[in-house]
Amino acid sequence: MDNQEIHEGLERITVARTALSEVDGEGGRLIVAGHPIETLAGRVHFEDVVLLLREGELPSAAKRDELRAELGRERALAAQRTRLSASGEGAMDAVRTALSALPAAASVTAMLATAAVTTGAFCRALDGAPSVAPNPALGHAEDLLRLAVGHEVSTVEVALLDAYLVTVAEHGMNASTFATRVVASTGADRVAAVVAGVAALSGPLHGGAPGPVLDLLDRVGDPAQADRVVARELAEGRRIMGMGHRVYRVRDPRAFVLERALTEASGALASPRLVLARAVESAAEHALAERHPERALKANVEFYTAVLLDAIGLPREAFSAVFACSRLAGWAAHYTEQVKHGRLIRPKALYVGPAPAGSAA
Ligand code: COA
């Protein structure tokens, strides 16, 4: 019995067929429903990607506008029912609770709107300020940012958030998508499956890294200190957040597109942390290569997520929730695929507990 092969973490195990995305860890490529991420991020809107994931092709402008209006209406409805509970609740708790409260038949649009409005309200509450009413006439990225920062926002800031939301909407069989598919495979409803995705994303090894990336950048403070602080972090046994990836053995292509979006915006919106981030990335890459010559540990999506979300005024406490606001589109699409084609997901475990008393060894 105990010579069974165990796949801890299910690394390299293929568990489903999907038309939603391909993650090429060796080549450092991400294809979303036939489109390289470089051709989507900063080039199309979040609404386009929601429809790409739902329908398999980029929409016409008319279809995008239809979804934009529907999301606007749903944000207005979501604002009427959004209540943040006890203070001290994290942003991901708030999003998870708000989504859980939706009826089982809630539409994907209602879920996207609920996540955005709740995240916005959480950010306002963090500042001790009341929630702002959604503006249904705006695009989803713009209104999400407005709801979070509490004032009108610039086109450059909106473009950055839109690029971010597009970048992280879908990414293969990551832990939260797998969690969503496991729940979907039991026949549970879509809201339940998406809530499982939020729960999985709340852990620091998955969606929780960008806040700590910003903490690290703060500890470094000055690019000239990057090598010293990175060495100290590693010597004290800490992982460098935003570095390393379960699948990518090269730099995460999403780090490239987010850095590109920040560079494109830099004429209009200077991010003081961009220069610092590049120095820390380079220091971390070198230090990790020395420590782990057997394994390439390069910047992942979270590294430049931290710089981008901070540059547009979002608080680090809400970074994971903003991630969830986008990834929800991917989870919902995986839910549909799983229900259409999937089987009940039910792997095995090797028993290593005690034998019953009196049984032969
Ligand atoms: N900093 C320091 N060491 C790291 C590291 C990091 N960011 N990422 C991996 N390592 C080390 C591990 O400590 C381990 O060393 P050991 O064998 O001496 O214990 C080795 O590299 C392999 O790591 P492992 O945890 O097996 O790799 P994984 O595939 O399970 O990890 C991550 C992938 C993402 C969980 C991991 O790289 C990590 O924790 N990164 C930081 C968190 C992060 O950025 N998460 C967001 C992911 S998108």
Structure commentary:
By secondary structure, the chain is mainly α. Helices cover 55% and strands 3% of the residues. It has helices at residues 37-40, 46-55, 61-81, 91-100, 108-126, 140-149, 155-168, 175-185, 190-201, 210-220, 226-235, 253-265, 272-291, 301-311, 319-341; strands spanning 21-24, 29-32, 35-36. Strand 1 and strand 2 form a beta hairpin. The radius of gyration is 21 Å and the shape is globular. It starts with 20 loop residues before the first strand and ends in a 20-residue tail after the last helix. The mean pLDDT is 94. The structure holds coenzyme A. The site of coenzyme A (COA) has 17 residues, from helix 14.
- Counting DSSP H or I runs of 4 or more residues, the number of helices is 15
Instruction: Describe the strand arrangement of the main beta sheet, using strand numbers.
Output: 1-2-3
**Mass-distribution shape:** globular
The total beta strand count reads: 3
**Bound small molecules, deduplicated:** coenzyme A
| Rg from Cα | 21 Å
Helical coverage, percent range: 55-70%
Determine the strand fraction and express it as a percent band: under 5%
Q: Which structural class fits the helix and strand makeup?
A: mainly alpha
Largest sheet: 3 strands, antiparallel
Low-confidence stretches: none
